[in-house]
Amino acid sequence: MRFLAHVARPSSFGEAAGEAMLIGNIGKAIEVCLFYNRDEAIDWLKSKQSHTQAQLS
Hints:
61% of the residues lie in helices and 18% in strands. It is built from three helices and two strands. The protein has a two-stranded parallel sheet with strand order 1-2.
């Protein structure tokens, strides 16, 4: 796994957990991005997938 899109509600435990991942060991090992909207998270993951595939070609 190279990318993690974390979707959470604002001011929730999920948001706090996502922020902890950003600065913790997980965020050092893979690219983590925090979202409040599922569709934006999916778009981000798709863009990362397209970019990675282009680099491999």
